[in-house]
From TrEMBL:
Protein name per its UniProtKB record: ABC transporter permease
Keywords tagged on the record: Membrane, Transmembrane, Transmembrane helix
Organism: Planobispora longispora
The organism's place on the tree of life at top rank: Bacteria
Transmembrane portions of the chain: 16-41, 61-83, 104-131, 151-173, 180-200, 232-255
Length: 260
């Protein structure tokens, strides 16, 4: 626990965490604004792009807004790991705690906790936007119906596990800029294509983003068809498997590599 506290202190005594939190909340807020603004708007064929704000289906869609912000938690995880090498503090860290595996484990636990906090923050922002929007539209707020608890859990779990992905990637690719750029390209380009193009969804559903989507999936007809996703339990299993792989990668690469 002392090492975990130390890792959390390293993070929370810098401006990095709240800057990333603000950026994540801004991204979530934009997503919510678009979702609320276009609710009930007629599509090209007369069907609404999203259900009206008074419906349960709208609430299901809106509560997923925070899931897309997990990339920022991943970037934070990358910086938590690569920052040690960039600023040459890793030597002092390992001199203080020679058992490198314990240091990596502490970073992973700290990353999980921070990921949970970021996920909860996104849910609070979502609640602050969605609940008034539903009430103003004359709808009934449903927090325990329609799979919304599963969606909330999926948002928090995705945020926490993406922090592990970032720490693992940061251990594998020590260059901070390269790791961050690689993560952004993977999430916003490669995974986006694999999960959006129907012919590639058979592969895309097994990516971290595809697995995360299965946890927060809502069946809403937007005119673009339904995505080919894993069952929720399978998506959760895939995410946990990825997290374990990244944790092992972080441990092995850090323990075996020269720190200079």
């Amino acid at each position: 626990m002392a090492l975990v506290r130390s890792e959390l202190q390293k993070l929370f005594t810098t401006r990095l965490w709240w800057i990333m939190l603000l950026v994540m909340l801004l991204f979530t807020g934009i997503t919510l604004a678009v979702t609320i603004g276009f609710a009930g708007v007629e599509g090209g064929q007369g069907a609404p792009a999203l259900p009206g704000r008074e419906t349960l289906e709208f609430q299901q869609a809106a509560w997923t807004a925070g899931a897309g912000s997990s990339i920022f938690v991943m970037v934070l995880g990358i910086i938590m790991m690569t920052g040690e090498y960039r600023y040459q503090t890793i030597t002092t860290t390992f001199l203080t705690t020679p058992r490198r595996g314990r240091v990596v484990t502490a970073k992973l636990i700290a990353g999980l906790l921070v990921g949970v906090l970021f996920g909860l923050a996104s849910l609070l922002l979502t609640a602050a936007a969605v609940i008034p929007a539903v009430l103003i539209a004359g709808g009934e707020v449903a927090l325990l119906d329609g799979g919304i608890p599963r969606i909330m859990l999926g948002v928090v779990a995705t945020s926490a596990l993406y922090a592990l992905f970032g720490i693992g990637l940061g251990a594998l690719v020590r260059n901070q800029i390269a790791a961050i750029v690689g993560a952004i390209v993977w999430v916003f380009v490669i995974e986006a294509l694999l999960t959006a193009i129907p012919a590639l969804q058979g592969v895309g559903k097994f990516t971290p983003s595809g697995a995360a989507q299965s946890l927060i999936a809502v069946q809403i007809d937007t005119g673009f068809g339904q995505a080919d996703l894993l069952p929720a339990w399978a998506g959760a299993s895939v995410l946990v498997a990825y997290a374990l792989v990244f944790a092992v990668v972080a441990s092995l690469t850090t323990v075996r590599r020269d720190i200079t």
